[in-house]
Each structure stands twice: as C-alpha cells, then as structure tokens.
C-alpha cells in the first residue's frame, strides 16, 4: 500500500541519500528499514510523509501519488514517532497526547478523553497524565510518543529509531508492547532501525540498505537469515544467523522421547533403578518439578524428600521456537530439554544433538515411548515448520495463553 517506484534523493551537495529505490510495503504489516549509518533509512521514511521530496521517482499511498495530496492532509493519516519521543516539555502528558485530536478540532473534552484512552492503550497508568515529560523515564516518554502518534488513529505509522535511546531491558519491554499493540491495531508501519536484532524481532518484512542509499535485500526475517542475497547482507545479519534462524522454526515440529521421569511420590529406590544420571521429577499432572541427580540420592524415602536441581527453562510445544528448545537443552542440568504441552505437562525430552539433527532434517527421534509417542509421532509427521511469531515468547504466550508451568519458557531468543 506504500509504494516506491524508482525513487532517488540527491542533495545539492552531491550526496545520493537514496538511489533508485523500488519497494512495495504491505498494508497492515511492519516493514523495517535497516542498514548502516547514513545509508538512507531516515530519508526513505521521510519521503512517505513528504518531509523530504524525492528528486526522482514516485511514492504512492494506496495507489495515489502522494504529490497529489497536500502535505498537511497527507500527514493526518500518518503518525510519526521519533527517537527521544520529541514531546512538548511544557505540556502535560495528557495534553501532549491530545495534541493531534485538538489540531483536528475535536474540542478539549473529547480530545482529552481520547488521550486518556491512548495512554491506557500504551500501558501507562492514568496517574501519569498530569505529569510533565521530564517527570517520566525514557521508556515511559517513548510510550507517550507512540500514544501521541496514534492520536488521530492514522492507518500509517512512521517510526524512526523509536526505541534506541533507552536501555536494552526497557527496549525489550517496549518492543514486546509494540508487537502486542500492533496485533490489536494492524497499522501499516514503517520502522527505521540500525539494529538487525530489532529488525528481525519486529519486522514482517525487512529492507536492508547499503551505504549509498541502495536496497540490498527486501525479504522476510526468515529468508534474510536463511538466504542473504550477498556477502554484505550476510555480514550485516551476523555470524550467528544459523542459530537465530531457529527462532522461526516451531518447537511443535520437534521429535521428543519419553525421558527418565517419575512422579514425586515415587521412591528413591525406583529412581535408582532407572540407572540414569538424572531423573525428571513430575507432579500428579505430569508437570515438571525439577531434576533429581542419581549420584546424590539417599538410600530411602521418596523423591519428595530430596532437593531437586532446578529445571532451567522448559519449552512449550505450543508457541515456542526450536531455538527455545535448544536453549533449554543447553541450560538443563541433565542436558535434556523438557518439552511441555499446552497444559504444562511433560510431553517428552530431547538433547541438543537430537534437536539439532531433527532441525537439520536428518531424523533425531529416538523411539518415543508410549506416553510420549502421540506427541512425538504427530510432531515428526509435521516436521519442523517455518512459522511467523514462534520466535517471540511473549507473543506466543499471549496467543495460546499457556506459557509453561515454570513461567520460564524459552527466552527472548530472536
Ligand atoms: N539535508 C541534507 N543535506 C545533505 N545531505 C544529507 C541531508 N540529509 C541527509 N543527508 C545525507 O544523506 C545520507 C542518508 O542520510 P539518512 O539520514 O537518510 O541516513 P540514515 O540511514 O537514516 O542514517 P542514520 O542511521 O545515521 O540515522 C547521509 O549521507 C546523510 O549525510
């Protein structure tokens, strides 16, 4: 719905900021523009709302050349969010957010009611409405910036490095919140960042630019990681793209086997009899409680009487990615990843070798025992599949409402 046709921008000093860009951005999706400093991302973004006019070519919005629309009218349908939020320092938070509705002549009461709604939408408590920007943290200010951009409910949002001025933890929270919001709002979003991790996490599609304002590749995150167009893109997406690609493979497709598992009511003698270095201890609903190390087992009593090594992560077959599964295996004291179903019950286990073999498509199932067979067979039949959204544990948990019984599934793993 936003289309660039052979668009270039040359500045009078001889700089070519954007060079012959042709690109079509999907309606209702997030397109991320990413690339090294000075490669023309911001210039491209600003050509959408006519803050920058192209030297050559055409930008169109829903089929209409944007030069045919007066800039103020065009911008009414396009929200704009920038780094450091750009709030008005002498206006309260509520009035900052009410700015656009007021400009549209909504009347004070209605504009403020809308602003209060928007603050709630971006996850800010009502008590902040009366504060001034300097009384908010950087992350909170960015939320206000997003709320303000949504003021007139524009179908298009332009976001220029909106989360790069905050620390990594707050950035992660803002990104998760942003994805949640987008699930509700389905805006057409153009998002500029220089951070490839952010691009992969947020983008439905990613346009990678190289210096000189040239488009190097336009693709989904999965394809960018799997099939970088050339050495520049491969370098830019990073050496660990093999691991990161696993974020797009569903854990549901991985074969699991029944692990050495016993209920917490079982005797220590039963655990010893399994002759395994580690035994997974489960509750009466087969939810995992922890690992018992055979070497440390007492002579008598039940598994309830002994201290268990923590599970580490489990991974959910509903919504988690293969990367979360591999992570779970590597972090587990037994080196076995525990897969749980939608109810949080143990579906089976696998070690890193089995998981990587399965992911590489060379098998990996080691004969599922009866309890796990159903899951394992279904999983194998389906095979690892490329999915959208499997990589975002927060989103996945939202989607299936399950998460893990430990509350520690996966990890921010894209
Ligand atoms: N008004 C201007 N006059 C001259 N050159 C400009 C102007 N604005 C931008 N440029 C140049 O155009 C090129 C692209 O700039 P742009 O801001 O689009 O890059 P960017 O990819 O967003 O960079 P960054 O990640 O550093 O923000 C740069 O070389 C920049 O110096």
From TrEMBL:
GO molecular function: ABC-type quaternary ammonium compound transporting activity; ATP binding; ATP hydrolysis activity
Enzyme Commission number: 7.6.2.9
Feature: compositional bias, Low complexity: 374-383
Superkingdom classification of source: Bacteria
SMART domains assigned: AAA (SM00382)
Domain ABC transporter: 2-237
Residues covered by region (Disordered): 374-414
Name of the top EC class for this enzyme: translocase
InterPro entries on file: AAA+_ATPase, ABC_transporter-like_ATP-bd, ABC_transporter-like_CS, P-loop_NTPase
Keyword Phosphoprotein part of the UniProt annotation: no
Keyword tags: ATP-binding, Nucleotide-binding, Transport
Family recorded in the similarity comment: Belongs to the ABC transporter superfamily.
Protein's UniProt name: ABC-type quaternary amine transporter
Taxonomic lineage of the native organism: Bacteria, Bacillati, Actinomycetota, Actinomycetes, Kitasatosporales
